[in-house]
Design goal:
single chain; alpha+beta; Aldehyde Oxidoreductase, domain 3; seven-stranded mixed sheet
Length: 172
């Protein structure tokens, strides 16, 4: 919290103070569903001390599909992670990509819990000087987190006959 005070121009007038909540910086990594929003991620980037160098921001927002690759209707997903290792891996990916020319900020925030079709699962943000570097780094960030982070997905599905099943899947 920050105390924001505005003094009157007239002597003897009261000083008006209000409490202003400062934006919270959230570390990259895994978070329980509902603990971080897309706006939090964007706010984090804009509050970066290097934001004046940014000319482009690109986002990837992963959502729950209604049908999986087998054609089964997805009812819900449950996401779990080996949290300590996932946070380490996601942080390392972000650090690696920030070293690339023109990249100012990289954030990967993967949500955990139960999700319905259409709900957001992951936010990946890349900010940098120019769009070409930003788009390239965004694609690399998404591909790497899918392959490297120990995040596990359980699909609850209905097949074409109406049978409900659930199984763990891996990212590709």
């Amino acid at each position: 919290m920050l105390l924001n005070c505005a003094a009157s121009m007239f002597i003897g007038q009261p000083i008006i103070c209000t409490m202003v909540e400062l934006p919270m910086t959230t570390k990259v990594g895994v978070h329980e569903k509902g603990k971080i929003s897309l706006m939090d991620v964007i706010r984090n980037a804009k509050n970066s001390c290097d934001f004046q160098k940014v000319g482009a921001i690109a986002l990837f927002i992963g959502v729950v599909r209604g049908k999986n690759e087998r054609g089964e209707k997805v009812q819900k997903l449950k996401l779990e992670a080996y949290e300590e290792k996932a946070n380490e891996v996601l942080s390392a990916i972000c650090s690696d990509l920030k070293k690339k020319h023109g990249i100012v900020d990289v954030q990967i925030h993967h949500l955990l819990g139960e999700f319905s079709v259409g709900e957001e699962l992951v936010y990946v943000l890349v900010a940098g000087s120019h769009r070409k570097e930003v788009f390239k780094a965004l694609e690399e960030a998404v591909e790497r987190y899918k392959k490297e982070a120990p995040i596990f997905k359980k699909e609850c599905v209905t097949d074409e006959k109406g049978k409900v099943t659930a199984y763990w899947t891996t990212e590709k």
